[in-house]
Amino acid sequence: MASADERGRRPAGMLEDAVLAVLWDGARPMSPADVQAVLDGSPAYTTVMTTLARLARKGLATRWREGRGFVYSASVDEAGHTAAAMHELLARRSDRAAVLARFVSELVPGDEALLHSLLRDAGTDAGEIP
């Protein structure tokens, strides 16, 4: 999981990512205690509970009452969440072409071939000639 600083804290946003990863891997809705048991670094129960509530407010997790507490599941899949983050980051840059060119130039050969294949298939789906 994420590395922690000298005080044992994760960088901003990393706990949310780690909690989402636990929800994605979970085969069922999970309570804060369930999530806490899986997370590296033993975060406090209240920290996990707050993080789950924040994810629910952002629409990234769904929660519902079960017994006296809540259980949570991811509202978005991992691929969709990651793609949205990539789009958001790209939208904040002034030279999109440079960012995309650098991204592609730094892909490992297998990922580059996969991207070419996906782009070719997307062009074919849109009615373009490959």
Characterize the structure shown.
With 130 residues, the chain is mostly helical. 56% of the residues lie in helices and 9% in strands. It is built from 6 helices and 2 strands; from the N terminus they run H-H-H-E-E-H-H-H. The protein has helices at residues 14-25, 32-38, 45-57, 78-91, 96-105, 109-125, and strands at 61-66, 69-74. A two-stranded antiparallel ribbon has the order 1-2. Strand 1 (61-66) and strand 2 form a beta hairpin. Helix 1 crosses helix 3 and helix 2 crosses helix 3 (45-57). The radius of gyration is 19 Å and the shape is elongated. The N and C termini lie far apart (40 Å). The mean pLDDT is 88.
Per DSSP, the total helix count is 6
Oligomer: single chain
Low-confidence segments? none
Number of strands: 2
The overall pLDDT, averaged over residues, is 88
Summarize the structure.
With 130 residues, this protein is mainly alpha-helical.
Helix-strand blueprint:
Blueprint: H1 14-25, H2 32-38, H3 45-57, E1 61-66, E2 69-74, H4 78-91, H5 96-105, H6 109-125
Helix pairs in contact: 1-3, 2-3
Keywords:
elongated; 2 strands; mainly alpha; two-stranded antiparallel sheet; single chain; 130 residues; 9% strand
